[in-house]
Amino acid sequence: QVQLVESGGGLVQAGGSLRLSCVASGTTFSLNGIYWYRQAPGKQREFVAYISSSGTADYADSVKGRFTISRDNAKKTVYLQMNSLKPDDTAVYYCKMIKNWGQGTQVTVSS
Fold first, then answer.
1. What's the CA gap between 103 and 94, in Å, rounded?
2. With b meaning 16 or more CB within 10 Å and e meaning fewer, what string describes 55-76?
């Protein structure tokens, strides 16, 4: 059974940075691509970033140039480095692998 656990969220001022982590268990981590999504209050869950098993990354236009996704296969962990944060980045951030979701971590950016 695949389990994903996110961490690293918190409260930060606009312009600040956070690094989110997603630790996986119960699967062959290195063979799978991993997604980050986010969901703001009253809005649909939206794609943020993706990293393939080979390390190729893709980003939503809204975060390009500010967010960086990376992975450490030895630690079965995917990271989302978020810089130059904006109040619009406030959301619960989720990681997803195959059809499995983590519980989410709250990111709040104050203006």
1. 7
2. eeeebeeebeeebbbebeeeeb
Q: How far apart are CA 76 and CA 25, in angstroms?
A: 7
The CB density around residue 94, as the number of other CB atoms within 10 Å, is 21
| C-alpha span between 80 and 99 (Å, rounded) | 19
Report the DSSP beta bridge partners of residue 47: 37
Structure tokens at 35: 């997604």
pLDDT in tens, 32-85: 999 999 999 999 999 999 999 999 999 999 999 999 999 999 999 999 999 999
Helix (H) or strand (E) holding 19: strand 18-25
